[in-house]
Amino acid sequence: MAMDPFRDFARSTDNTLGVEWEVGVLDPETLDLVPRAADVIDEVVAKHPDTHLEREFLQNTIELVTPVCANTREAVDALQRDLTRIQDVAKRQNLLLWAGGGHPFTDFREQALSPKITYEEIINRTQYWGKQMLLWGIHCHIGISHEDKVWPIINAIMTKYPHLLALSASSPGWEGLDTGYASNRTMLYQQLPTAGMPYQFQNWDEWVGFMHDQQTSGVINHTGSMHFDVRPAAKWGTIEVRISDATSNLRELAAIVALTHCLVVHYDRMLEAGEPLPTLQPWHVAENKWRGARYGLEAVVITSRATDERWVSEELSLLVDELLPIAQDLDCVEELRLVEDILERGAGYQRQRRIYEETGDWRAVVKSSVQEMTELTW
């Protein structure tokens, strides 16, 4: 029987972890993005063939990709190794590296698209909104043992959407303006017709039917994939969580990855134990997503189907305590505890906004983020 790329889920024996981190390439004088990612990637891979780097939607972006890992420490160690290699090459090429959910002053009309047919199709189809996709994120792949678990876990993860977003939110600026949002990236990205919140599918068959519909109607032919905030990756046997903004540094990335990994494993174990997983009405999920994007760590979020509410910062503190047994099993307690670090020190958007309010200069904000990549080690 022929393989069905939508139905056939490559079941993972363990809750393995893979991480993708998108970073930008900057001109050291202007601190603006430049289309030099391919130059850097080519030199790094020539010197270190074991380095997994990907070209992204725009020619200013490098995606770092970890191997399959057991836990956050392994993943971040791999990212640190590859980041060091990239930084060495970037320095020789007179370039800087930077990461964040969105660059606060670059002109999207001046940024070159990477040469890939699906990327060109996205722009042809989406026009104005597609051209604005100067967005950088963190993607976490967690291995799942059976496809029947996938959608119950995804629907449960969506109840913690604002938690994962608020911690990572780092895109308050856009085209020289303070948007008032903690994550403007979140609001922009959902403008793509294949992006945003996934539908709350009840089982794997519903998802397979949906994907076949998208193929029949030509949607996937135009875009290459569905770009939901959380989605199955059947080829790898994983759930891919794509909620978080890219962090400026590996220390905060470790916190986001540990929290994401622990959450998915927590819900997986609940299923194994026959326990019901949490869900929220779609309208509550949508409202929580907006609140996380708008207010970040200052958001009040909906926590139950009965519309109970709590500060997301309080929720995160409770969540760390609840997930500690999972973190101990995954050997990522130290990394999960970094969530508390972010709560105390402030998220990326808060630091960026503080610098902008003090200086009135987005270049000072970008310069600070560049420094954080080197200085905020985990």
From TrEMBL:
UniProt-recorded Gene Ontology molecular function terms: ATP binding; glutamate-cysteine ligase activity
GO BP: modified amino acid biosynthetic process
InterPro entries xref list: GCL_type2/YbdK_subfam (IPR050141), GCS2 (IPR006336), Gln_synth/guanido_kin_cat_dom (IPR014746), YbdK (IPR011793)
Residues in coiled coil: none
EC numbers on record: 6.3.2.2
Catalytic activity, as annotated: L-cysteine + L-glutamate + ATP = gamma-L-glutamyl-L-cysteine + ADP + phosphate + H(+)
Statement: the UniProt record of this protein carries the keyword Cell inner membrane: no
The entry's keywords: ATP-binding, Ligase, Nucleotide-binding
Record flagged with keyword Ligase: yes
Described function: ATP-dependent carboxylate-amine ligase which exhibits weak glutamate--cysteine ligase activity.
Alphabetical list of NCBIfam families matching this protein: gshA_cyan_rel, PRK13517.1-2, PRK13517.1-4
Family assignment from sequence similarity: Belongs to the glutamate--cysteine ligase type 2 family. YbdK subfamily.
The protein's name in its UniProt record: Putative glutamate--cysteine ligase 2
